[in-house]
Write a structure and sequence with these properties.
Helix content: 25-40%
Structural class: alpha/beta
Number of helices: 5
CATH class of one domain: Alpha Beta
CATH architecture of one domain: 3-Layer(aba) Sandwich
Radius of gyration: 18 Å
Number of strands: 9
Largest sheet: 5 strands, mixed
Shape: globular
Distance between the termini: 22 Å
């Protein structure tokens, strides 16, 4: 978001569960659940030229929420918590573009077969660019540095070597700018 603002973009940042300071110059919308995130993204995407979906949304959520603490009882097994699927916001935004020519960028955290899984996800989701990175032990979301490959729907791949996340953001926005200017 900071990189987009610095490049002159009007930015709406939809965020959940982060302690990061708000980026100067961005409109910030806070949400608490995947369902709220979907609603906010669809609203913001309606007039956006570019939608960047960097959130790591859980695939599932509890089917029902307890009104209070679930207390353990001696001799009792742990409760089974039924799950339901969260909405696939990236796929929805990519397949039902709110505007002609809208660019959609997704992110994919993978643990194995990173590029193969990323290519499959790019096709399945239908986005224009997919930033794929490997996560796992010592490769965490909270790190100030990252390494990734940006996969494009046209088959191109842009590796981003290990370094500050700002360098990754610059690469993503360079790719977005290049594609947006071709339209």
């Amino acid at each position: 978001a900071r990189t987009a603002v610095a490049r002159g973009a009007r930015v709406t940042l939809i965020e959940a569960n982060t302690g990061l300071p708000d980026p100067a110059g961005a409109d910030v919308v806070r949400v608490g659940t995947a369902v709220q995130l979907r609603e906010a993204v669809l609203k913001a995407a309606a007039d956006a030229d570019v939608v960047v979906m960097a959130a790591a949304v859980a695939d599932f959520r509890p089917a029902a929420y307890a009104s209070g603490k679930i207390k353990k009882k001696d001799g009792e097994e742990a409760p089974v918590v039924p799950l339901v699927r969260n909405p696939d916001i990236l796929a929805e935004v990519a397949t039902e573009r709110a505007r002609p020519g809208q660019l959609v960028v997704g992110f994919a955290a993978e643990t194995d077969d990173v590029l193969a899984n990323g290519r499959a996800k790019l096709r399945r989701k239908g986005c224009d660019l997919l930033v794929v990175n490997e996560v796992g032990e010592r490769k965490t979301f909270g790190s100030e540095e990252n390494e990734a490959v940006v996969l494009a729907a046209d088959g191109t791949e842009t590796p981003v070597p290990y370094g500050p996340k700002e360098a990754l953001a610059d690469t993503v926005w360079d790719l977005v700018s290049g594609r947006f200017q071709q339209m």
